[in-house]
């Protein structure tokens, strides 16, 4: 059985981002994979301290000196066959707690362990306001994945104006993604 980590961030557990997470998770589970949900807003995640003159233990051994929930989440991502990244959009970017986690992850994985390299991911950005900013957020997410050697299988913007057709599409995307994790991706990139 494949294992998919669905890592998401929004302070609103009943909003658009949570609905997107629910739909893609449902599709993944119904296609036969185990879903491991990680809600970053409910975790204790500190900001990078840039210790050791900017490159501390993250550069030396792929771990972080901060004793919070980061290491457990990182281990979950390492064990996953696939990762779905979902963030609410603020100021055309990921949420602040998502950025805090992502910055530390990038330092540990891109500079030392490369444990996440070659993982195929789905990126989802959810904007409840105007919807502007979703593409910039997805670009920022993908830029971070590239630093770590991961690959974006799909990039999905969800806004309040398209949610009626995008939420059901996320369910189908979850099923398709799981099938590709099981049977291979038919595209080279």
TrEMBL record:
<dbReference type="InterPro" id="IPR051796">
    <property type="entry name" value="ISF_SsuE-like"/>
</dbReference>
<keyword id="KW-0285">Flavoprotein</keyword>
<dbReference type="Pfam" id="PF03358">
    <property type="entry name" value="FMN_red"/>
</dbReference>
<dbReference type="GO" id="GO:0016491">
    <property type="term" value="F:oxidoreductase activity"/>
</dbReference>
<feature type="domain" description="NADPH-dependent FMN reductase-like">
    <location>
        <begin position="3"/>
        <end position="153"/>
    </location>
</feature>
<dbReference type="InterPro" id="IPR029039">
    <property type="entry name" value="Flavoprotein-like_sf"/>
</dbReference>
<protein>
    <submittedName>
        <fullName>Multimeric flavodoxin WrbA</fullName>
    </submittedName>
</protein>
<dbReference type="InterPro" id="IPR005025">
    <property type="entry name" value="FMN_Rdtase-like_dom"/>
</dbReference>
<keyword id="KW-0288">FMN</keyword>
């Amino acid at each position: 059985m494949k294992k998919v980590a669905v890592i998401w961030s929004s302070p609103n557990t009943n909003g658009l981002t949570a609905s997107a997470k629910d739909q893609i998770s449902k599709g993944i589970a119904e296609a036969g994979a185990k879903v491991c949900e990680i809600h970053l807003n409910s975790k204790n995640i500190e900001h990078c301290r840039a210790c050791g003159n900017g490159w501390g233990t993250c550069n030396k051994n792929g771990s972080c000196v901060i004793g919070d929930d980061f290491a457990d989440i990182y281990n979950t991502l390492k064990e996953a066959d696939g990762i779905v990244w979902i963030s609410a959009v603020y100021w055309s970017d990921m949420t602040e707690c998502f950025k805090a986690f992502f910055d530390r992850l990038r330092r540990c994985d891109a500079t030392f362990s490369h444990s996440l390299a070659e993982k195929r991911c789905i990126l989802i950005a959810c904007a409840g306001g105007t919807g502007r900013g979703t593409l910039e957020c997805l670009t920022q997410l993908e830029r971070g994945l590239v630093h770590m050697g991961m690959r974006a299988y799909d990039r999905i913007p969800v806004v309040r104006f398209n949610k009626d057709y995008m939420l059901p599409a996320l369910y189908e995307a979850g099923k398709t993604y799981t099938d590709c994790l099981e049977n291979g991706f038919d595209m080279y990139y």
